[in-house]
Amino acid sequence: MAVTWLVGWGWAAPVWVVALFVLQFFRDPARVVPVGENLVLSPADGRIVAVEETDDPWLRRRALKISVFMNVFNVHSNRAPVDGEVKGRWYNPGKFVNADLAKASTENERNAVWFRTSDGKDVTSVQVAGLIARRILCYVETGAHLQRGQRYGFIRFGSRVDVYLPTDSNPRVALGDKVRAASDVLAQL
User: Fold this and answer.
1) Which of 52, 77, 129, 152 makes an SS bond possible with 28, Cβ 3.0 to 4.6 Å?
2) Choice among 42, 77, 125, 159 that is catalytic
3) pLDDT at residue number 93
């Protein structure tokens, strides 16, 4: 307000645009978590860019991989996809290529969190930094017990989250679908 009063709207407008963008980017709204057996929720807001069987590099197994690409206008708070215990966590420094590209999953800076459900199913959720994103935050440590939809991290400014599931999981999304963290179902275990 002071800038607007001192220099006028013409000079203050860019400052207001930047301030509104930053406020919009760091929002973290409450979400209603769906109820149901063996549901895997989206850990992030964004667009589905991969639904494929591949290797899970963290648990060294074949897995169903579902990837969610977040642009700079999406909420970037990350949420637990399943109820479970955090069995492991790995951080890898890396590049900052466009997170919309498949090679971002193996080349970019990333942080993987391994969840084990109460019935012994393993789910790996990997936060991947993007072209603009330069900071991955993860709030949980090994041994933590999380509920579906509970916040566990944040990625700043455009990125992706890869979720690796057992191969017998049933995907509930397709390429191009838009999803919201903790509200939309990716798959059923």
Assistant:
1) 77
2) 159
3) 85
Q: Specify whether 159 is catalytic.
A: yes
The pTM of this model reads 0.83
d(CA 88, CA 72) in angstroms, rounded, equals 29
- AA letter at 136: I
Tokens 């709030």, residue located: 139
Six-digit token pair at 29? 């709204």
pLDDT number for residue 158: 64
Residue ranges, the chain, pLDDT below 50: none
Structure tokens at 56: 């899970």
Q: SS3 for 76?
A: coil
Q: At 181, list the tokens.
A: 């963290």
Say what the pLDDT of residue 123 is.
98
SS3 161: strand
User: Quick one: tokens of 180?
Assistant: 């919201």
Q: What are φ and ψ of residue 78, in 5° steps? A: -105, 140
Dist. CA 105–CA 52, nearest whole Å: 13
| Phi-psi group of 82: left, alpha or beta (phi > 0 → left; psi -120 to 50 → alpha; rest → beta) | beta
> Is residue 167 within 8 Å of 63, Cβ to Cβ?
yes
